[in-house]
Amino acid sequence: MRSNLYRICYSPWGQEFSICNYWHDPHHDDLYLNASSFLALINGERDHPNATAWRKNFLRVGHLVLIGGPDDGVITPWQSSFFGFYDANETVLEMEEQLVYLRDSFGLKTLLARGAIVRCPMAGIAHTAWHSNRTLYETCIEPWLS
């Protein structure tokens, strides 16, 4: 199923479903870039009329706290919680190796340069338990609330 999911997700009909809006198949980058109605736009990978305003707004963030972990079970690869992603060989490239970072297409590089990105890796927490894990809250969220 996963190997053919791109056929559904990169269709106009598929883009009506939230999971497809977040779908990026590393084996079909051209389809992703041309068909994605959300992720490719928000990541600044495709030109659109709101790109400059969206980047400017993203850069207004005081701190970007990224939370994820190897036991998530849904987010694949789990490193995408930290803007890492697969290359064409399904090797995970960290955020700093991604084109969206290198080009600073929506401001990741700028945020990191000013020390505004915080990564909070948490092992042992399933995707469905992120919202209710006390340790995660106390470690990754509470310190940033003001």
UniProtKB/TrEMBL annotation:
Q: Where in the cell is it found?
A: Lysosome
GO CC, any one term: lysosome
Is the Glycoprotein keyword given for this protein? yes
What keywords appear on the UniProt entry?
A: Glycoprotein, Hydrolase, Lysosome, Signal
The reaction(s) annotated as catalysed by this protein in its Swiss-Prot or TrEMBL entry are: S-hexadecanoyl-N-acetylcysteamine + H2O = N-acetylcysteamine + hexadecanoate + H(+)
Stored SUPFAM superfamilies: alpha/beta-Hydrolases
According to its UniProt entry, what is the function of this protein?
A: Catalyzes the cleavage of thioester bonds from S-palmitoyl-CoA or S-palmitoyl-N-acetylcysteamine (unbranched structures) but does not have activity against palmitoylcysteine or palmitoylated proteins, branched structures or bulky head groups. Conversely, hydrolyzes both long and short chain fatty acyl-CoA substrate.
> Any idea what this protein is called?
palmitoyl-CoA hydrolase
Task: Tell me the classification of the organism that encodes this protein.
Answer: Eukaryota, Metazoa, Chordata, Craniata, Vertebrata
